[in-house]
Write a structure and sequence with these properties.
Distance between the termini: 42 Å
CATH architecture of the largest domain: 3-Layer(aba) Sandwich
Bound molecules: adenosine-5'-triphosphate, magnesium ion
Largest sheet: 7 strands, antiparallel
Strand content: 15-25%
CATH class of the largest domain: Alpha Beta
Structural class: alpha+beta
Helix content: 25-40%
Radius of gyration: 26 Å
Shape: elongated
Number of domains: 3
Number of strands: 19
CATH topology of the largest domain: Rossmann fold
């Protein structure tokens, strides 16, 4: 689960990571009030108005702007950003509607650094990455000059040690800004580690982590993702969730107890079991990738799906305008093939299916299942093997005959 910058900054503050003074605004009026308060409290002249969407790259897309002309300018910028359909490299071409703003104190930046923490699956440790090249181009740095990113791995038994934090601090040349800058950075590292573990993060990123003109370390941006598997011990997450930012179909799937991930392709997949679902996506790509055929979703209906869930799953798949055909690939173990076949037929009839449908069934009661499909009067193509099914679905989407 992702949260917004302002929510993550609130958590930073709780753990003692310095952040600028700021406040949220859902309207232009609120933005002006917050800007006035900030200018009053800081005695400064600069505020920053920031779009709160879950996708990154906001600054480049015009969603982060400095207001130098007091609260009036903050108000004008707020009205601009609130009217935006913000397009960034992470939102996709349709962009994301801006509904919330964060207005904060503008700081004088001496250096912009990058500091991020993730769970590293290879070492099974929390990895901290830091770079002198913070700011809005970090993806480019990672791609073109990866040597500029330094990484340390934290031993879960020992925890973050002082020397590891200092190693990164010196790697970032922070001693040049003074001893107290190094000390502040070490404190931020240790706080970030505590936070990461206690709040069950899967990612926590500060880009940029700045050194101010006075040599202080401040987190200017915050990106935090929680590990959904830990939701049971974080009842507070429910309040932090912003469903406007989530894929509506994925949300619906979650509520129906289905594992669904929307993808970019054109073949809707309805499969039981995560392993089979991934293998199905692989074989579609393997057979049809060079002809522009690819999975439109990952969907695991689970081991014990019933007719109702199959219907729901079908509906979800069909909500995507990209879906040009559907591939049902089911292994009937706990779930019997005839039940699935009945579910598929009922769903197809109810929804008035207009795209080609390929069904591959295997396992318990497979003959009965195939009979139900054959007698349904619907145009359903059946397949005997996965490869056969993949060939048929690719032919259905890309044209041509089955190889
Ligand atoms: N409070 C602030 N004071 C001064 N400059 C700021 C402030 N907040 C942001 N900036 C400037 O704006 C740039 C972009 O801000 P920020 O990192 O929050 O957004 P972003 O990186 O574009 O968004 P995302 O993290 O979603 O990709 C920063 O690198 C920094 O130069
Ligand atoms: Mg940023």
């Amino acid at each position: 689960m992702k949260i917004h910058e302002y929510q993550a900054k609130r958590i930073f503050a709780k753990y003692g990571i310095p952040v600028p003074i700021g406040g949220t605004a859902f309207s232009v009026d609120e933005a002006e009030v917050v800007a006035k308060r900030i200018l009053h409290e800081t005695g400064g002249t600069l505020t920053v108005v920031k779009a709160q969407i879950h996708a990154g790259g906001r600054g480049k897309g015009g969603g982060v702007k400095l207001a130098k002309g007091g609260a009036d300018e903050a108000r004008r910028i707020a009205s601009e950003i609130l009217a935006m359909q913000l397009i960034t490299h992470q939102t996709g071409p349709e962009g994301q509607k801006v509904r919330r703003l964060y207005v904060e104190q503008g700081l004088e930046i001496a250096r912009e650094l990058y500091l991020g923490a993730v769970v590293d699956r290879d070492t099974r440790r929390i990895a901290f990455m830091a770079s002198t090249e913070g700011g809005v181009e970090i993806e480019k740095v990672a791609e073109e000059t990866p040597e500029k990113i330094q990484t340390i791995f934290v031993d879960p038994i020992v925890g973050m040690t002082g020397y590891q934090a200092r190693q990164l601090a010196y790697g970032l040349d922070l001693q040049k800004s003074g001893k107290q800058t190094v000390a502040q950075f070490v404190k931020v590292m240790s706080a970030l580690y505590q936070l990461f573990v206690k709040e069950d993060c899967s990612l926590c990123e500060i880009n940029p982590l700045i050194v101010t003109k006075t040599g202080d370390i401040v987190a200017l941006d915050a990106k935090m993702t929680f590990d959904d598997n830990a939701a049971f011990r974080h009842p507070e997450w429910a309040d932090e969730r912003d469903t406007d930012e989530e894929d509506p179909v994925e949300l619906e799937a979650q509520n129906a107890g289905l594992n669904y991930v929307a993808l970019d392709g054109n073949v809707g997949c309805l499969v039981n079991g995560a392993g089979l679902a991934m293998a199905t996506m692989d074989i579609i790509k393997a057979v049809g990738g060079d002809r522009g055929v690819a999975p439109a979703n990952f969907l695991d209906v689970g081991g014990g799906a019933n007719q109702e869930q199959v219907t729901k799953a079908f509906k979800m798949i069909l909500r995507s305008p990209r879906v040009k055909a559907i591939f049902v690939n089911i292994f009937g173990g706990i779930m019997k093939c005839d039940v699935i076949a009945a579910g598929v037929v009922a769903a197809a009839k109810e929804l008035g299916l207009k795209v080609p449908l390929v069904v591959r069934l295997e396992g318990t009661n497979v003959a009965l299942g195939k009979e139900i499909l054959a007698k349904s009067g619907l145009h359903i193509m059946t397949a005997d093997t996965m490869k056969d099914g993949a060939d048929k679905i690719v032919a259905a989407v890309a044209g041509g005959s089955v190889k």
